[in-house]
Amino acid sequence: xxxxxxxxxxxxxxxxxxxxxxxxxxxxxxxxxxxxxxxxxxxxxxxxxxxxxxxxxxxxxxxxxxxxxxxxxxxxxxxxxxxxxxxxxxxxxxxxxxxxxxxxxxxxxxxxxxxxxxxxxxxxxxxxxxxxxxxxxxxx
Length: 140
Hints:
- This protein is 22% helix and 18% strand.
- The N and C termini lie far apart (34 Å).
- It comes from Diversispora epigaea.
């Protein structure tokens, strides 16, 4: 397996067992997952040394997790941290500069269209509706 997407789930250290059986994993998407621990991040990054793309948007991770990712994921090219607010800029500056980090700047408290959730038209028999998608909940 080279791609694993487990978005919007309540994940604990059980993910460690999955990661141990996926040493060739290249792309891991865990956006909006909850119940992460630093141990979980450490083991995932150790078990999947070939990771190139890691998506952790809207996860409750902090500086320690970023340090583990930076130390263990030497092949990483892309790291998504969108909506992760517990990570300091000081720690991000120590991450390999070759890694593209996706993290919006909220310093001016202004949002651009790219910060909004994607809008998807849903076609029904009567009329079109717009749904704001979220891995945990869909509003119609």
